[in-house]
Amino acid sequence: xxxxxxxxxxxxxxxxxxxxxxxxxxxxTPVHDFDFGSGGDAVFVQSDNTTANTVVSYERLADGTLAQxxxxxxxxxxxxxGGAAVDDLASQDSLVYDRDHRLLFAVNAGSNTIxxxxxxxxxxxxxQVIGSGGTFPVSIAVHRGLVYVLNALGxxxxxxxxxxxxxxxxxxxSVPLGLNPTQTPQFTSTPGEVAFTPDGRQLVxxxxxxxxxxxxxxxxxxGISSTPVVNSEPGAVPFGFVFGPGGLLDVAEAxxxxxxxxxxxxxxxxxxxxxxxxxxxxxCWLVGxxxxxxxxxxxxxxxxxxxxxxxxxLLLFATTTTDPGTVDATxxxxxxxxxxxxxxxxxxxxxxxxxxxxxxxxxxxxxxxAVGGEGIAAS
Length: 379
Known about the structure:
Elements: H1 3-18, E1 29-30, E2 42-46, E3 54-60, E4 66-73, E5 95-98, E6 103-108, E7 113-120, E8 123-131, E9 137-143, E10 146-151, E11 157-164, E12 167-176, E13 193-196, E14 202-206, E15 213-220, E16 223-224, E17 229-232, E18 238-243, E19 249-253, E20 258-264, E21 270-277, E22 283-289, E23 292-297, E24 302-308, E25 314-321, E26 326-331, E27 337-342, E28 347-353, E29 359-366, E30 376-378
Antiparallel strand pairs: 1-4, 2-3, 2-30, 3-4, 5-6, 6-7, 7-8, 9-10, 10-11, 11-12, 13-14, 14-15, 15-16, 15-17, 18-19, 19-20, 20-21, 22-23, 23-24, 24-25, 26-27, 27-28, 28-29
């Protein structure tokens, strides 16, 4: 089967799964001589170093603390948006683990490329570096073999790919977002995140202060729609988001420093159901697990914990202090631990999660070369 045949087959497979659902290798630099094994229990952190971007691999120990294992060059450069202080990419999901294909995707914002790593336990192997289809990639969405990359500069754009034998194959033209390319400061005027809905039928983009919109693209076997349904949220500055219980779209809103919950229709429109202020400055990033949302407040520095029952009320129940510059975060697959990137000094704070969602700090690790860095994922 030729390349185009494989693209068509991959798109057809993605579509069938939901009815319409949709290099050059570089050697790793070992830091410790550990047995990598073949299991999971790993946390990967992107440095976004502007000289040479890297991904740092950590083993997640039984008590939830992290042990550094290796530093892996991405083959590209990180980047820093104008005006950014502790969040150089000003985005969420710049490092994404695809459990189905055991692949890790990283953005190289300064090189306009995407790096693809094969994952074996806590060990990485760089298999591909490919163009992002635009300028300054900041976020990656993956669903059943379909990948979209969000480029932040030049008005913003989306580029599609399919996964083919562990590599990305670009398809279709870049889809422009039509944002104001001259608006400043850059770190609040660039799009924040791209992600698929759980069923893969829609692709969602937040534009932060550049329009303050939630854009929703329809997904078909041929790619995404050329234009989105634009949901304007004046003053909200929608940033990071997750899909919570009941399929609700939960969004961190930097404008009011709050978490908002929306119902997303099949037609792409959103209806706000709840808005809960965190009482903390710069609420921008959001992760969720087991009915609890964790919002990162860069100006806190802190994590706000909220309960999010299906179709129930959204309730703030705790605020936990972190190291300065709280940015991206991830939970372990079993929900027992939370790992929070803090960009001021390039630290990851480690927390144990109680059955009710309360956090207890258990330690922290310094990520080499990661001051201002963003991008964290757990396997």
